[in-house]
C-alpha cells in the first residue's frame, strides 16, 4: 500500500482555513465526498463517531482521522495543511496543522490497517512534516507525500 494509491493531486488541500476540529472534519468530509462520490454527511458522521472513541490527533501537530464506509470500493485519502493550527484534542495536547484523512470500505480489514500504518510512518518523519509545513502549493505537497513515501520504502 503506497501513499499514491490513496491520494491524487485533487485530494490535497494546501491552505485549509478552519477554526475547530469539527469544522476541519466537515471540510475534509466535503472534499472526500467529491472524490469518492459518497454523501458528505455519511463521511462526517463516520469521522465523528471515530473521534468519540478517542482522538485521532496523534501528536506533533498531526491528525489521522479515519473511518469505514459501506458503499466505497477502495481506500481514499485526503491531505490538508491548515493555515492556522487548531485544537484537535491530540494526545500531546499540541495544536494540529497537518491532517491526513483516510476512508476505507467496511470490508477492508487489513488493508485499512496497512494504510493507517503507512500514513503514520510517513508523518512520524519530522523532516517530511517540516517540508509539508513549508510547502504552500498542492503540487508540492503531493510530491512531498508521494516521493517521501517512495524513498522510505526503497
Could you describe the 3D structure shown?
This protein is of the alpha/beta class. It has one domain: Mannitol-specific EII, Chain A (3-Layer(aba) Sandwich), CATH 3.40.930.10. The chain is built from 5 helices and 6 strands, in the order E-H-H-E-E-E-E-E-H-H-H. Strands 1, 2, 3, 4, 5 and 6 form a 6-stranded mixed beta sheet that branches. The protein starts with 11 loop residues before the first strand and ends with a helix.
Report the sheet with the most strands, covering strand number, pairing sense and barrel closure: 6 strands, mixed
Q: Tell me the CATH topology.
A: Mannitol-specific EII, Chain A
**Secondary structure tally, helices:** 5
**Fraction in beta strands:** 15-25%
- Contiguous low-pLDDT stretches (5 residues minimum) are none
What is the annotated CATH architecture? Answer: 3-Layer(aba) Sandwich
Number of strands: 6
Q: What structural class results from the helix and strand content? A: alpha/beta
Overall geometric form = globular
Order of helices and strands, N to C? EHHEEEEEHHH
CATH class: Alpha Beta
Helix content: 40-55%
